[in-house]
Specification:
The complex is a heterodimer of chains A (199) and B (185). Chain A is mainly α and 199 residues long. Chain A is 62% helix and 0% strand. The N terminus of chain A is likely disordered. The interface between A and B is large, with 61 and 61 residues.
């Protein structure tokens, strides 16, 4: 790796294949649009984990999340001409993943199975009591998340776990930024209540 | 539970809004909050939520299975099987053709080998006489160097590879500098 490809924005980790490692999103998007499958594979490896995490927590199920992520990236490949710049790619992926998940949830029977192992979290080392307490809180949060409406859950996850802006979330969900703020505030209250009822 | 079903305002029995409590987290509680059991209980719940949220945010252990990339790429490659093909000069066993995308990949790789150059788009146009014109866009490292010279180097490198390695007759190569990058990006 040369200094030309040091840790800039949109530049991926060293685990990427050497062919495209360290190239910025913009270059990879243009190459992929040009039919370069290997460039696209680097983008897949760069963003699949984030989309997978969002989908798992939206759907509460790993198998469904895998299917959604696969569909999202195949759609990205086909619609590369619409993605003008590399900087637009993460936003496009978040929007498409969210909408795919919402579609899956609309089509699903109410109360699909929640993967039980999702309620576990990796315990930080040391402080075993504290770790157990945190693990218990994560378990409660995971269960409580599934009690929110899908739109509320999407707004909360995009904001609190994926750092998306209110404006971007508003664009994804097709509502105003004010509505997004209200939805997230309401979600927080419902989640906090479910974690440790205060009445 | 009854409280949170009231739209827009989650009011505790003491009259405080839960949303306001959330907004004040991190600063010192005021006199009311310090003495109010409702506020203190609600704050404890919000703190528990904040901690669980942080744990979920930091949780890198939820990773896709290693097979996911190959599943995605298999679907993508299946989608690619409609590439146009480029005839090469006839060999002793008759005409040969080669995927245009495969040639484009080789030519991009040739351009990449020039210091400070990243190939972007590469298009091949077949002319009537069988030769090929190449349109190549590149991004170059911003270093104050002369991009005209860089374009010449790229053109020479691409022509050499297209001719010697691929066996194309190259009528011309257009190199367009589409973007610049520096060591920060």
């Amino acid at each position: 790796m040369t200094t030309a490809t040091a840790d800039g924005p949109g530049v991926g980790p060293a685990s990427e294949p050497s062919a495209g490692r360290g190239l910025d999103d913009g270059t990879l998007v243009v190459r992929a649009r040009d039919g370069d499958v290997n460039a696209f594979e680097v983008l897949v490896q760069r963003y699949q984990s984030q989309m997978y995490r969002l989908a798992v927590r939206m759907l509460g199920n790993r198998g469904d999340a895998e299917d959604v992520v696969q569909e999202v990236f195949l759609a990205a490949w086909r619609r590369l001409p619409e993605i003008r710049e590399g900087a637009a790619l993460p936003g496009w992926l978040y929007r498409t993943t969210t909408n795919h998940c919402l579609n899956v949830l609309r089509a699903r029977r109410p109360r699909a199975e929640l993967d039980l192992d999702l309620t576990r979290s990796r315990s930080p080392e040391g402080e075993p009591e504290r770790a157990a307490e945190t693990a218990e809180q994560v378990r409660a949060l995971t269960v409580a998340l599934q009690q929110l409406t899908p739109e509320q859950r999407a707004a909360w996850l995009l904001r609190e776990v994926h750092d998306r802006s209110y404006a971007e979330i508003a664009g994804i969900l097709g509502v105003s930024a004010t509505a997004v703020r209200g939805r997230i505030a309401r979600s927080r209250v419902e989640l906090a209540e479910a974690m440790q009822p205060w009445r | 539970m009854a409280l949170s079903s009231r739209i827009g305002a989650h009011v505790l029995p003491c009259g405080r809004h839960v949303e306001d409590l959330w907004d004040t987290m991190g600063s010192a509680p005021d006199a009311h909050v310090q003495g109010c059991p409702h506020c203190r209980t609600a704050l404890a719940s919000l703190a528990a939520l904040a901690e669980a949220t942080r744990a979920v945010y930091d949780d890198e252990s939820l990773t896709p299975p290693p097979t996911l990339t190959s599943r995605i790429m298999a679907a993508v490659r299946a989608d690619v099987r409609r590439t146009s093909r480029l005839p090469l000069a006839a060999g002793e066993h008759g005409p040969v053709d080669i995927s245009e995308q495969a040639v484009a990949a080789v030519l991009r790789f040739a351009a990449d080998s020039v210091d400070g150059v990243r190939a972007r788009r590469c298009r091949l146009h077949r002319l009537e006489d069988g030769s090929v014109r190449v349109d190549l866009s590149i991004s170059v490292r911003f270093s104050g160097g002369t991009s005209v010279a860089t374009g010449d180097v790229v053109r020479d490198r691409v022509r050499a590879v297209a001719t010697a390695h691929v066996g194309l007759e190259v009528a011309g190569i257009d190199v367009e500098v589409e973007d610049v990058w520096d060591d920060e990006t």
